[in-house]
Amino acid sequence: MNGDAKVLSSLTEDEITAKYRPFLLPEEQAASDWVSELELDAVTAFVEQHKRKEDYKPLKFLVLYGSLRECSYSRKMAYEASRILHRLGADVRVFDPRGLPVKDDVQHDHPKVQELRTLSHWSDGHLWCSPEQHGNLTAVFKNQIDWIPLATGSVRPTQGRTLAVVQVNGGSQSFNTVNALRVLGRWMRMFTIPNQSSLPMAWTQFTDEGRLMKSGNRDRLVDVCEELVRVSFVLRPSFDMFADRYSERMEKRAKEEKERAERERKEKEAAEVESAQELKDVKA
Predict the structure, then answer these.
(1) The CA-based dihedral angle spanning residues 170, 173, 178, 179, taken in that order and rounded to the nearest 10 degrees
(2) Taking the CB of the first residue and of the last residue of the chain, which one, N or C, has fewer CB atoms within 10 A?
(3) Would you say 129 and 57 are in contact if contact means Cβ atoms under 8 Å apart?
(4) Is the Cβ–Cβ distance between 129 and 74 less than 8 Å?
(5) Burial of 129 (0-12, 13-18, 19+ CB in 10 A)
(6) Is there a single domain that holds both residue 202 and residue 254?
(7) Is the pLDDT confidence value at 1 over 50?
(8) Is 32 found in the same domain as 110?
(9) β strands within 121-234, DSSP E
(10) Predicted confidence band at 259 (pLDDT cuts at 50, 70, 90)?
(11) What tens digit of pLDDT does each residue of 18-48 get?
(12) Do 210 and 96 share a structural domain?
């Protein structure tokens, strides 16, 4: 575990909340908030069934958004999704992309890069929310995924995890970005749930306080979060199995065989040198 991962693992619950749960509302406000009033009986009962299991652990979700603007609608949408997931008992952490360097092959030890990779490895699933710009996802969002490797040694930060995709639009509704996010999720070897959310004219959909107004679009976001929780509970027990790939087993076997052959070659050379030295000593 690298230094940044150790720092993250040593954070107290209050420190985690301050750093990764900016979506949480004050207790009094949360009690009367629209998220707390949602009828989520079916999925809540499903979660309660899992809570009764001896090995129960809350689902862990990493939420990523794709804008650095102060008035970022993808961030607002991501926060609303986080509140719903939190209401359903999940441990939700939101990554702040500010300060993350542009992807290169040099800054792998940058604190923000290590933080992002550690959070992805920690998670059971992701929720991605990107604005649509020029018909596709933003550079801010793509940069985050580009910094997450498919594998680092035996560590696979995304493989086998679940994924929900969401987009916000400045104009009419589009699905270009969620479709692109699905392709990206498949490339990262993640299981993307069937449901998705696309918010049209995002600038008209939020209150001055940054809360999503009541609409069919808001209901759709709830659908996405419910499904992400259900699918994640079903797939999580098999995460290790999904990380087992024939091609990688063959690659590992070939590497081990090569290393074994190299060891035997060196041992043989050492034995020949030793034998030659003994013969030399006898002649002397």
Answers:
(1) -130
(2) C
(3) no
(4) yes
(5) buried
(6) no
(7) no
(8) yes
(9) 125-131, 162-168, 191-199
(10) very high
(11) 999 999 999 889 888 999 999 999 999 999 9
(12) yes
Are 174 and 137 in contact by the 8 Å Cβ rule? The answer is: no
My answer on whether 191 and 50 are in the same domain is yes
Residues 266 and 237 in one domain: no
Tally of domains in the chain: 2
Boundaries of domain holding 261:
246-284
CATH number of the domain residue 135 falls in: 3.40.50.360
Residues 18, 101: Cα–Cα separation, whole Å: 23
CA–CA gap between residue 177 and residue 131 (Å, rounded): 8
Strand runs labelled E in 187-240:
191-199
Q: Is residue 76 domain-shared with residue 129, that is, in the same domain?
A: yes
Q: Are residues 181 and 264 in the same domain?
A: no
Q: How many helices, marked H, and strands, marked E, lie in the chain?
A: 11, 5
**Cα–Cα separations (whole angstroms), residue 217 to 21, 36, 200, 201:** 23, 18, 8, 11
